[in-house]
Design brief:
The structure is a single chain. This protein has 97 residues and is α+β, with helices and mostly antiparallel strands. The protein has one domain (3-96). The protein is built from six helices and three strands; from the N terminus they run H-E-E-H-H-H-H-H-E. The chain has helices at residues 3-7, 21-27, 32-37, 41-51, 54-67, 75-82, and strands at residues 9-13, 16-19, 93-96. Strands 1-2-3 form a three-stranded mixed beta sheet. A hairpin with a 2-residue loop joins strand 1 (9-13) and strand 2. The radius of gyration is 13 Å and the shape is globular.
């Protein structure tokens, strides 16, 4: 998967990733930090996961905690909240909706 496909993926149907085309077109060029600053925390988290950067993951956590009334204690907890843990294997197709 390309970064933009993973970052804006909204689900899977078998080996096909379903991507939000509208969000992707508008925000694909944004960095992890810029996505978080826009309030797109799931997308920012996915961007950080895709990059493999622990620093970016911690930055998303920090920005998320500044905006929420219920701060979370760890990146792992943030991953559970948004239901994303890593780039999946076996994705053969991308469907933009």
């Amino acid at each position: 998967m390309r970064r933009a496909d993973y970052v804006f993926c909204i689900g899977f149907e078998g080996n096909t990733a379903i991507v939000d085309g509208k969000l992707q077109r508008k925000y694909a060029s944004r960095s992890t930090r810029e996505l978080a600053e826009e309030g797109l925390f799931k997308q920012a988290l996915c961007s950080a996961i895709f990059s493999g950067s622990r620093e970016e993951l911690e930055e998303v956590l920090s920005l998320y905690n500044r905006r929420t009334q219920d701060p979370v204690g760890s990146v792992e907890e943030l991953k559970r909240i948004f239901g994303t843990f890593g780039v999946p294997d076996g994705v053969d197709r991308i469907k933009v909706v």
